[in-house]
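Weekly structure sync, notes
Attendees: PL (lead), two postdocs, one rotation student
Agenda item 3: pending single-chain targets
PL asked that the sequence for the first pending target be pasted directly into the notes so everyone works from the same version. It is reproduced below exactly as submitted, 125 residues in total.
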Amino acid sequence: MDLKMKDIVTAHYKTGKYIGEITNEGDLTYLVKVLAVLKHPTQGDLHHPKEADVMLFHTRRALAFREQMNVPKKMVKPFEGEVPSYTKSLQDAVNELKGQLTIEDSEWHKKSLAAITALEADYFS
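Predicted structure, written out during the meeting:
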């Protein structure tokens, strides 16, 4: 795969997925500027996924519009199509995550839903 500066790509970063523009290239990574959100990051402790009884239950924000992220080259793929607006894509990603969190009634689902609901109020107020 031959990606270059200014290419529009999808990139996985931690537990989120974004559409962005390549702004720099290193030996093993691309620097990608966020343009839209495809998947909102998972809430909670990444080292203990889907566990609610952890020392610190992390609230994980989506990366901001135009925020830069260093992404391993293997996690970056070309994007085809029209790039949605950041705000619309973030709302869609939040709604998707909230829908997934209402399927089960576990403590992790409840804590994650509370965290994403608080983030939603912050994002869109």
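Discussion points:
- The radius of gyration is 15 Å.
- The helical segments are 86-101, 107-124.
Action: rotation student to compare against the earlier draft before next sync.
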